[in-house]
Amino acid sequence: MHALIVAAHPNPGSLTHNLARRVAAGIAEAGPEHTVEIADLAAEDFDPRFTATDVASHLRQVPAPVDVAAEQARLDRTDALVLVYPVYWWSMPALLKGWIERVFANGWAYDDGDGKLEKKLRRLRVHLIASAGANLRTYARHGYFGAMKTQIDHGIFGYCGAPVVTSELLIQPDAPDMTVLLDTAQAIGRQVFGESRRTTAVQAA
Protein backbone atom coordinates (compact mmCIF):
# COMPACT_ATOMS: atom_id res chain seq x y z
CA MET A 1 0.00 0.00 0.00
CA HIS A 2 1.14 3.54 -0.68
CA ALA A 3 1.24 6.55 1.67
CA LEU A 4 1.62 10.21 0.78
CA ILE A 5 3.07 12.41 3.52
CA VAL A 6 2.43 16.11 2.96
CA ALA A 7 4.67 18.47 4.92
CA ALA A 8 3.94 22.19 5.14
CA HIS A 9 6.90 24.21 6.41
CA PRO A 10 9.37 26.43 4.50
CA ASN A 11 12.41 25.21 6.48
CA PRO A 12 13.58 21.68 5.49
CA GLY A 13 15.38 21.37 8.83
CA SER A 14 12.28 22.17 10.87
CA LEU A 15 10.58 19.89 13.36
CA THR A 16 7.77 19.47 10.83
CA HIS A 17 10.09 17.92 8.27
CA ASN A 18 11.85 15.80 10.87
CA LEU A 19 8.46 14.48 11.99
CA ALA A 20 7.56 13.71 8.38
CA ARG A 21 10.79 11.78 7.90
CA ARG A 22 10.17 9.79 11.07
CA VAL A 23 6.63 8.92 9.91
CA ALA A 24 8.16 7.68 6.65
CA ALA A 25 10.66 5.59 8.62
CA GLY A 26 7.83 4.04 10.60
CA ILE A 27 5.93 3.14 7.43
CA ALA A 28 9.07 1.50 6.05
CA GLU A 29 9.43 -0.50 9.28
CA ALA A 30 5.87 -1.78 8.96
CA GLY A 31 6.77 -3.92 5.97
CA PRO A 32 8.39 -3.95 2.52
CA GLU A 33 4.96 -4.09 0.87
CA HIS A 34 4.38 -0.44 1.86
CA THR A 35 5.72 2.52 -0.10
CA VAL A 36 5.86 6.16 0.89
CA GLU A 37 6.33 9.56 -0.75
CA ILE A 38 6.96 12.87 1.00
CA ALA A 39 5.47 15.96 -0.64
CA ASP A 40 7.25 19.12 0.52
CA LEU A 41 4.77 21.79 -0.55
CA ALA A 42 7.20 24.66 0.00
CA ALA A 43 10.07 23.03 -1.90
CA GLU A 44 7.69 22.04 -4.70
CA ASP A 45 6.53 25.68 -4.85
CA PHE A 46 2.86 24.77 -4.74
CA ASP A 47 0.68 27.84 -5.26
CA PRO A 48 -2.00 27.88 -2.51
CA ARG A 49 -3.96 30.82 -3.95
CA PHE A 50 -7.57 30.00 -4.88
CA THR A 51 -7.89 32.00 -8.07
CA ALA A 52 -10.65 32.81 -10.53
CA THR A 53 -9.63 29.70 -12.48
CA ASP A 54 -10.22 27.57 -9.38
CA VAL A 55 -13.65 29.17 -8.96
CA ALA A 56 -14.50 28.40 -12.59
CA SER A 57 -13.32 24.81 -12.10
CA HIS A 58 -15.47 24.51 -8.98
CA LEU A 59 -18.45 25.61 -11.07
CA ARG A 60 -17.55 23.01 -13.76
CA GLN A 61 -16.92 25.73 -16.32
CA VAL A 62 -13.30 24.74 -16.99
CA PRO A 63 -11.12 21.70 -16.22
CA ALA A 64 -9.01 21.61 -13.08
CA PRO A 65 -5.79 23.65 -13.32
CA VAL A 66 -2.77 21.59 -14.36
CA ASP A 67 -1.08 21.74 -10.95
CA VAL A 68 -4.30 20.72 -9.19
CA ALA A 69 -4.86 17.82 -11.58
CA ALA A 70 -1.31 16.62 -10.87
CA GLU A 71 -1.95 16.63 -7.11
CA GLN A 72 -5.24 14.82 -7.56
CA ALA A 73 -3.48 12.16 -9.65
CA ARG A 74 -0.88 11.77 -6.91
CA LEU A 75 -3.66 11.25 -4.37
CA ASP A 76 -5.43 8.79 -6.68
CA ARG A 77 -2.35 6.58 -6.31
CA THR A 78 -2.47 6.91 -2.51
CA ASP A 79 -4.07 4.67 0.09
CA ALA A 80 -3.19 6.78 3.15
CA LEU A 81 -2.64 10.53 3.43
CA VAL A 82 -0.52 11.91 6.27
CA LEU A 83 -0.52 15.66 6.88
CA VAL A 84 2.33 17.00 9.03
CA TYR A 85 2.22 20.68 9.92
CA PRO A 86 2.83 23.30 12.61
CA VAL A 87 -0.18 25.00 14.17
CA TYR A 88 -0.44 28.61 12.98
CA TRP A 89 -3.15 30.71 14.63
CA TRP A 90 -4.88 27.56 15.94
CA SER A 91 -5.15 25.90 12.56
CA MET A 92 -2.98 24.66 9.71
CA PRO A 93 -0.62 26.95 7.74
CA ALA A 94 -2.02 28.83 4.76
CA LEU A 95 0.16 26.77 2.43
CA LEU A 96 -1.52 23.54 3.50
CA LYS A 97 -4.99 25.07 3.73
CA GLY A 98 -4.60 26.39 0.18
CA TRP A 99 -3.47 22.96 -1.01
CA ILE A 100 -6.64 21.44 0.44
CA GLU A 101 -8.88 24.22 -0.89
CA ARG A 102 -7.54 23.80 -4.42
CA VAL A 103 -6.96 20.05 -4.60
CA PHE A 104 -9.96 18.70 -2.66
CA ALA A 105 -12.22 20.13 -5.30
CA ASN A 106 -15.83 19.73 -6.30
CA GLY A 107 -16.14 16.81 -8.69
CA TRP A 108 -13.06 15.05 -7.35
CA ALA A 109 -13.18 14.99 -3.53
CA TYR A 110 -16.94 15.42 -3.38
CA ASP A 111 -19.84 16.17 -5.69
CA ASP A 112 -22.56 18.54 -4.60
CA GLY A 113 -24.48 18.60 -7.85
CA ASP A 114 -28.24 18.14 -8.09
CA GLY A 115 -28.67 19.11 -4.45
CA LYS A 116 -27.14 15.86 -3.18
CA LEU A 117 -23.71 15.45 -1.62
CA GLU A 118 -21.58 12.55 -2.83
CA LYS A 119 -18.54 11.88 -0.64
CA LYS A 120 -15.89 10.59 -3.03
CA LEU A 121 -12.87 9.93 -0.79
CA ARG A 122 -14.16 7.13 1.44
CA ARG A 123 -11.21 4.95 0.37
CA LEU A 124 -8.58 7.44 1.63
CA ARG A 125 -7.33 6.99 5.20
CA VAL A 126 -6.15 10.25 6.76
CA HIS A 127 -3.59 10.84 9.53
CA LEU A 128 -3.15 14.34 10.98
CA ILE A 129 -0.01 15.28 12.90
CA ALA A 130 0.14 18.85 14.16
CA SER A 131 3.01 20.30 16.20
CA ALA A 132 1.95 22.84 18.81
CA GLY A 133 3.83 25.94 19.91
CA ALA A 134 1.57 26.51 22.95
CA ASN A 135 1.41 24.25 25.97
CA LEU A 136 -1.28 21.67 26.63
CA ARG A 137 -2.90 23.80 29.33
CA THR A 138 -3.56 26.56 26.79
CA TYR A 139 -5.16 24.12 24.33
CA ALA A 140 -7.30 22.60 27.08
CA ARG A 141 -8.37 25.93 28.62
CA HIS A 142 -9.58 27.43 25.35
CA GLY A 143 -10.72 24.28 23.57
CA TYR A 144 -8.39 24.87 20.64
CA PHE A 145 -7.72 21.20 19.88
CA GLY A 146 -11.44 20.45 19.83
CA ALA A 147 -11.99 23.41 17.51
CA MET A 148 -9.26 22.15 15.18
CA LYS A 149 -10.87 18.71 15.09
CA THR A 150 -14.25 20.23 14.26
CA GLN A 151 -12.79 22.32 11.47
CA ILE A 152 -10.28 19.89 9.97
CA ASP A 153 -11.24 16.32 10.89
CA HIS A 154 -14.97 16.78 10.49
CA GLY A 155 -15.34 19.92 8.38
CA ILE A 156 -12.84 18.96 5.67
CA PHE A 157 -12.32 15.22 5.65
CA GLY A 158 -15.72 14.25 7.00
CA TYR A 159 -17.29 16.28 4.20
CA CYS A 160 -15.32 14.25 1.65
CA GLY A 161 -15.93 10.94 3.41
CA ALA A 162 -12.24 10.30 4.16
CA PRO A 163 -11.90 8.63 7.59
CA VAL A 164 -9.49 10.37 9.96
CA VAL A 165 -7.64 7.50 11.64
CA THR A 166 -5.10 9.62 13.52
CA SER A 167 -5.53 13.13 14.91
CA GLU A 168 -2.43 13.92 16.94
CA LEU A 169 -1.29 17.15 18.59
CA LEU A 170 2.41 17.08 19.50
CA ILE A 171 3.08 19.59 22.30
CA GLN A 172 6.50 21.25 21.97
CA PRO A 173 6.71 23.62 25.02
CA ASP A 174 6.09 20.84 27.54
CA ALA A 175 8.92 18.74 26.12
CA PRO A 176 12.48 18.81 27.53
CA ASP A 177 13.57 17.60 24.09
CA MET A 178 11.93 16.51 20.87
CA THR A 179 12.79 12.81 21.15
CA VAL A 180 9.40 11.73 22.47
CA LEU A 181 7.58 13.67 19.76
CA LEU A 182 9.78 12.21 17.03
CA ASP A 183 9.34 8.72 18.44
CA THR A 184 5.57 9.27 18.48
CA ALA A 185 5.67 10.23 14.80
CA GLN A 186 7.57 7.06 13.97
CA ALA A 187 5.09 4.96 15.95
CA ILE A 188 2.24 6.56 13.99
CA GLY A 189 4.07 5.65 10.80
CA ARG A 190 4.19 2.00 11.84
CA GLN A 191 0.39 2.07 12.26
CA VAL A 192 -0.56 4.06 9.17
CA PHE A 193 -2.04 0.96 7.57
CA GLY A 194 -3.34 -0.48 10.85
CA GLU A 195 -6.90 -0.34 12.12
CA SER A 196 -6.62 1.57 15.40
CA ARG A 197 -7.74 5.16 15.73
CA ARG A 198 -5.91 7.69 17.90
CA THR A 199 -6.83 11.21 18.89
CA THR A 200 -4.43 12.56 21.47
CA ALA A 201 -2.26 15.41 22.60
CA VAL A 202 1.27 14.22 23.29
CA GLN A 203 3.80 15.80 25.62
CA ALA A 204 7.31 14.66 26.33
CA ALA A 205 7.75 13.40 29.88
Describe the structure.
The chain is an alpha/beta fold and 205 residues long. The protein has helices at 15-30, 52-58, 66-76, 94-103, 136-142, 144-160, 179-190, and strands at residues 2-7, 35-40, 80-86, 110-111, 118-119, 125-132, 164-171, 198-202. The strands form two sheets. The chain has a six-stranded parallel beta sheet, with helices on both faces. The radius of gyration is 17 Å and the shape is globular. It contains seven helices and eight strands, in the order βαβααβαβββααβαβ.
What is shown here, in short?
By secondary structure, the chain is of the alpha/beta class. The protein is 39% helix and 21% strand.
Topology (SSEs and partners):
Elements: E1 2-7, H1 15-30, E2 35-40, H2 52-58, H3 66-76, E3 80-86, H4 94-103, E4 110-111, E5 118-119, E6 125-132, H5 136-142, H6 144-160, E7 164-171, H7 179-190, E8 198-202
Parallel strand pairs: 1-2, 1-3, 3-6, 6-7, 7-8
Antiparallel strand pairs: 4-5
Helix pairs in contact: 1-7
Which key features would you list for this structure?
39% helix; single chain; six-stranded parallel sheet; two-stranded antiparallel sheet; alpha/beta; 205 residues; 7 helices
